[in-house]
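Data card: per-record layout.
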Amino acid sequence: MVMLTFSINGPLALWISGPVLEFLGIDRDSTSPWVFWPLRILVMTPTYQLLLIVTGTILGQHRYFWPRFMKRLRWIGLVRSIE
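The structure for this 83-residue chain is written out next.
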């Protein structure tokens, strides 16, 4: 189920990041590729992480993905360690 979660989540994050950029007014045709692709990656990275929790929970793997999600949040400094 963990492998299925990863295999579903990658394309799903890619699919959702497109409309998010369109909502922000960033279009592939009107924006330079040097600007568009880094922005797409920046949008897709947190989208992937959030969807990983959602998809993992739906597939019954919340206990596997939640600690890894919290570890990433601690790594970037958004959550302090409770220890």
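Known properties of this structure: Helices lie at 2-23, 33-58, 62-76. Residues 60 and 70 are 18 Å apart (CA to CA).

See the next section for split statistics.
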